[in-house]
């Protein structure tokens, strides 16, 4: 190897001295140019291969400016040539073992104190870098990182355009810089505190627009860059504890990314919904914790007087401490609720705007166009993979509720997906139970569903439940068990819940058909069987589904009587509020009478089985699957111990939507609870007559066998209970149906009360 290949020992020179040397070299190079070449003010040293990817601003020619401006342009041109020469030499010397000029250059670019480089000087450096793109390989990574850290979004338009051109050139020539460049852009989607000055008066929205311009430019140059972009979008998402502004800014910006990168729609909506669910679940957990603390607080307040006197100081300090903790918890819940509401509003708005942009493509019969169908399938996939697997989600699922309201085709697909989940025995039991809860709540609350769809759901649920009863209820050894038959109880509860909301749709007046008694073989008992549940009695429901008051009931309800009187005893295992509401409505409508079963169930003890759930509670591992920090179904490697050991948990995901900002998207599509006062008034006198008959029957049957005595006693007890507590229980049941049943805790009302108190004090 020739000794000429080794450079002489590096000499220590200052940055100014090196710049002077570069200036001399620049002057020598300028002698080779003609005088007329001074009018060419665009970058001459850019590689021809990169010209098509550069979109630098055009500058006026010398003929259009004065001689003083030409002199200024020439001075700037010489300064740029000098910087370009210095830059190329610094990079070359670094590769030959002398990093001092290179490091001093980075120091100049990253200087913030006492003052950073002026914008004009930064612009010259960006222009110089554009001339040396081919030299900026992976050995210059520290220099590129310094350039990426510049606060370029607040500069003037000329600087921004040169900077965007530089980013496009550097990622095209050296793909190694694609990830750092995109990471810098994505990080700027957060809300940032901008220093307002006379020199930099760029609004935050204008800065966001410039970031999107740069990101779109890079994606146009490198279409495969979307695979690099999505992980960055997910990793930069604000933590659920970060501020409201950070969440609003970020969600708004990444949804805007979908306008020029639609290939990311499924992934971006998936990550946004996943983060919304985290906040949604956190609110429910906070409410439950607040409820627990509130319960302890009430217990302390209700201590006996003598203990209060002896420990007044301690109790007062503890009470104040608990009160302050509750106050902090309420503020935290309020902040989380605002974030949830704001993010859902942004997603609802995105969906609405996208739909409106395709409104002209709808067919005359209302069939959604292909883009809307694709959007629905994206959201349905997100629901099946994320939302359905998440417990305690309170509002996030309404995104799909809103989208399905656009077309009966969408609601059919949604109901079909839920039905398939319920019927698929290969699925975890907990997911099948959740699907039944979603189906019942959806059918009850979706105002846009038609008779066909509601009847289809009742047919499916009724057929499934009746099949389970016929297969299992085969002997006296059968006992209720929520672990073994959780899906069955969930499906029966779904039928009862739907009946409470949709009985007007499921029944139509049938005045042509005369009233008649029904043979026992037609339908069997309508809930009059108590205790052993073996003796058939006459029902008021006909074999064709007609009742004594002339109503024609949907045929899918015909098996309900056999189901509720089976030894599986679903009225004992389903939610008490739902069962009571069903009993009251069905009795008022002369559809079915189940009060004797409810009375008898008060004496029925169902021992909790030593199930996997119980074992998990003992080991402390159950909370990670149901109701704990995990809140995800199926995270237990297939084990199904997530169902409560006795009464089926009340979970109706589409309970009333309580967020203020985004609630208007539910207008005209959401079914509120409607009380059945008219029907109860019509049959009030009949109820009184029935109660008197029950009393007479009890007196006449005192010496009869125990089974018959149990029946009459059950009736008598029910009559007395209804007489004393009917008004209070009716109000409580109506409230339980209308309120959110996922967490209808005192803490929920405590939060509302504290907020109302603050508003009143502010008014004063």
From TrEMBL:
Transmembrane stretches, start-end: none
GO cellular component: nucleus
Region (Disordered) location: 21-59, 303-324, 675-741
Residue ranges, compositional bias (Acidic residues): 675-708, 721-730
Superkingdom per UniProt: Eukaryota
Coiled-coil positions: none
UniProt-listed GO biological process terms: transcription initiation at RNA polymerase I promoter
Single GO term (MF): RNA polymerase I general transcription initiation factor activity
One Pfam family per UniProt: RRN3
InterPro entries to which the protein is assigned, alphabetical: RNA_pol_I_trans_ini_fac_RRN3
Polar residues bias locations: 36-59, 731-741
Range of residues in the leader sequence: none
Family, similarity comment: Belongs to the RRN3 family.
Protein name as catalogued: RNA polymerase I-specific transcription initiation factor RRN3
Lineage: Eukaryota, Fungi, Fungi incertae sedis, Mucoromycota, Mortierellomycotina
């Amino acid at each position: 190897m020739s000794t000429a290949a080794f450079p002489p020992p590096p000499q220590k020179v200052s940055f100014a001295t090196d710049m002077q040397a570069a200036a001399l070299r620049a002057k020598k190079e300028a002698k080779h140019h003609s005088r007329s070449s001074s009018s060419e003010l665009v970058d001459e040293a850019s590689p021809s291969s990169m010209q098509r990817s550069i979109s630098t601003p055009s500058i006026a020619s010398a003929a259009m400016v004065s001689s003083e401006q030409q002199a200024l342009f020439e001075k700037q041109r010489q300064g740029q040539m000098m910087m370009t020469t210095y830059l190329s030499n610094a990079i070359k010397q670094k590769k030959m073992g002398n990093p001092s000029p290179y490091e001093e250059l980075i120091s100049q670019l990253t200087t913030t104190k006492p003052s950073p480089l002026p914008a004009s000087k930064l612009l010259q450096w960006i222009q110089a870098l554009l001339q040396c793109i081919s030299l900026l390989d992976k050995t210059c990574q520290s220099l590129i990182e310094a350039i990426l850290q510049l606060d370029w979004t607040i500069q003037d338009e000329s600087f921004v355009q040169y900077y965007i051109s530089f980013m496009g050139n550097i990622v095209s020539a050296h793909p190694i810089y694609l990830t750092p460049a995109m990471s810098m852009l994505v990080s700027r989607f957060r809300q940032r505190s901008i220093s307002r000055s006379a020199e930099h008066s760029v609004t935050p929205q204008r800065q966001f627009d410039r970031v999107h311009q740069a990101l779109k430019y890079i994606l146009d140059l490198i279409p495969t860059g979307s695979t690099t972009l999505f992980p960055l979008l997910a990793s930069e998402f604000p933590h659920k504890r970060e501020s409201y502004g950070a969440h609003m800014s970020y969600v708004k910006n990444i949804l805007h990314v979908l306008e020029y990168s639609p290939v990311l729609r499924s992934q971006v909506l998936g990550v946004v919904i996943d983060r919304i669910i985290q906040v949604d679940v956190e609110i429910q957990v906070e409410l439950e914790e607040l409820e627990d603390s509130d319960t302890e607080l009430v217990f302390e307040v209700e201590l006996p007087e003598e203990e209060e006197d002896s420990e007044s100081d301690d109790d007062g300090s503890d009470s104040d401490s608990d009160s302050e903790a509750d106050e902090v918890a309420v503020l935290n819940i309020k902040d989380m609720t605002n974030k949830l509401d704001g993010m859902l509003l942004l997603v609802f708005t995105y969906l609405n705007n996208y739909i409106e942009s395709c409104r002209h493509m709808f067919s005359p019969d209302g069939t959604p166009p292909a883009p809307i169908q694709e959007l629905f399938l994206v959201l349905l996939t997100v629901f099946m993979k994320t939302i359905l697997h998440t417990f305690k989600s309170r509002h996030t699922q309404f995104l799909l509720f809103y989208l399905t309201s656009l077309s009966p085709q969408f609601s059919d697909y949604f109901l079909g997906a839920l039905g398939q989940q319920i019927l698929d025995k290969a699925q975890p039991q907990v997911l099948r139970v959740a699907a039944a809860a979603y189906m019942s709540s959806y059918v009850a609350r979706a105002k846009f569903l038609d008779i066909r769809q509601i009847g289809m759901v009742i047919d499916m649920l009724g057929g499934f439940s009746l099949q389970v009863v016929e297969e299992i209820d085969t002997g006296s050894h059968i006992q209720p068990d929520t672990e073994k038959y959780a899906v069955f109880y969930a499906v029966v509860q779904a039928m009862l819940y739907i009946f409470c909301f949709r009985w007007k749709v499921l029944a139509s007046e049938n005045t042509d058909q005369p009233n008649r008694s029904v043979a026992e073989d037609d339908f069997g008992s309508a809930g009059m069987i108590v205790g052993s549940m073996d003796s058939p009695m006459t029902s008021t429901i006909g074999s064709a589904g007609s009742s004594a008051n002339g109503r024609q009931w949907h045929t899918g309800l015909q098996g309900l009587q056999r189901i509720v009187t089976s030894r599986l005893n679903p009225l004992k295992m389903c939610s008490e509020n739902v069962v009571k509401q069903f009993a009251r409505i069905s009795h008022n409508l002369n559809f079915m009478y189940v009060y004797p079963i409810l009375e008898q169930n008060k004496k029925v003890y169902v021992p909790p089985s030593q199930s996997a759930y119980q074992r998990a509670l003992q080991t402390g591992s159950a909370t990670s699957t149901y109701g704990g920090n995990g809140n995800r179904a199926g995270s237990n490697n297939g084990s199904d111990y997530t169902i409560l050991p006795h009464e089926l948990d009340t979970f109706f995901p589409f309970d009333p939507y309580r967020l203020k900002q985004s609630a208007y998207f539910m207008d005209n599509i959401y079914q509120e609870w409607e009380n059945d006062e008219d029907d109860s008034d019509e049959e009030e006198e009949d109820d009184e007559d029935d109660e008197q008959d029950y009393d007479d029957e009890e007196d006449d049957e005192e010496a009869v066998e125990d089974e018959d005595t149990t029946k009459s006693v059950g009736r008598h007890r029910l009559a007395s209970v209804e007489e004393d507590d009917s008004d209070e229980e009716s109000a409580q049941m109506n409230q339980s149906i209308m309120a959110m049943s996922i967490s209808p805790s005192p803490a929920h009302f405590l939060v509302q009360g504290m907020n109302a108190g603050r508003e009143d004090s502010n008014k004063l």
